[in-house]
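Quick one: structure tokens for this chain, please?
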Amino acid sequence: MQKLRTGVMWSPPIANSFKWNVDGSSLGKPGPLGIGGVLRNYNGILFGIFSLPVGILDSNVVELRAAVKVIELSAFNCLLHHKHIIIESDSANVISWRPWLHHKLFSSVKRLASCFGSIIFSHSFREIGRPPS
């Protein structure tokens, strides 16, 4: 039986910044995997959403791919250039991983990072993926 966390809420990013909440999912282990994310501003207003199938991969790599994908999407959205971006994931591994472990994924991040004022990665519990009603 899964324990329910109480008092966990989505927190907005600081003024004039944007927050991506990202996640990966699996239909079985191993099984087909997907990634998705939701982009909101400091007022909690929805600015974007995506979901994509990514094949059959390690579950940690899928979580990492979700984080890389939102950096790519943000770089191609001129509205987000020179803004502060927060990427929030429920995967502690994604937040703590070192770039040399997955240099191919991180090479695109390094190249695109100059588009932003800053990119901050943060860990969250799965329950806070949406703002309060």
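The longest helix spans residues 59-75.
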